[in-house]
Structures are given as structure tokens and as C-alpha cells.
Amino acid sequence: MPRYFFDINDNGQFSQDEIGVDCNGEEAVRKAAIEALPTLARDVMPDGDHHVISVLVRDAQGTTVLRSSLTLDVVWLNDHEKQ
């Protein structure tokens, strides 16, 4: 079973996966990358009005094969002033 590495980019701070995970096919890789995002978000959000977390997946050769991301973007509307 191929091994994939799930690196994290948390609002510009990069963390490289040195261990990796064995995944049985592309759909398993996709699912693992998506499922990691809510867990990561709970650990770091909210810390402001804009935050982006990305999971970058590398194959065993080191090629980035997939990216999933989650964005928090808070914008006041209708000329609403902060209180």
C-alpha cells in the first residue's frame, strides 16, 4: 500500500509530516486530507478574522499530489461598525 505524507500549512506556518500514512488509493488520500481539516481548525481557530489551513499531500517520491484547504474569512457587511 502506498505511503503518503500530509504536510500542514497553518496560516503560513509549515509543518512537514515525517511519518506518513498508508492509503489504499486516491479516494483514501482525498478523504484523509479533507477529514484532517476540521480537527486542525478546532485547534487553532478563531484567532482573527482571516485564517487559512491547508493540507498538502506528498507521495513517496516527494511529489505534492493533492491540496485541501479550509478558510475562515469574517467581513462586516452593510457598513456595520464594530462595537
Summarize this entry quickly.
23% of the residues lie in helices and 39% in strands. The chain is built from one helix and five strands, in the order βββαββ. The protein has one helix spanning 26-44; strands at 3-10, 13-15, 21-22, 50-58, 64-73.
What does this structure look like?
Helix content is 23%, strand content 39%. Strand 1 and strand 2 (13-15) form a beta hairpin. Strands 1, 2, 3, 4 and 5 form a five-stranded antiparallel sheet that branches. The mean pLDDT is 90. It contains one helix and five strands. The chain is an alpha+beta fold and 83 residues long.
Question: What kind of sheet is the major sheet?
Answer: 5 strands, antiparallel
Q: Compute the number of helices.
A: 1
Give the helix level as a range of percent: 10-25%
Q: How big is the Rg? A: 16 Å
Distance between the termini: 55 Å
Overall strand count: 5
Number of domains: 1
Structural class, by secondary structure, is alpha+beta
List low-pLDDT spans.
none
Percent strand: 35-45%
Q: Which outline best applies?
A: elongated
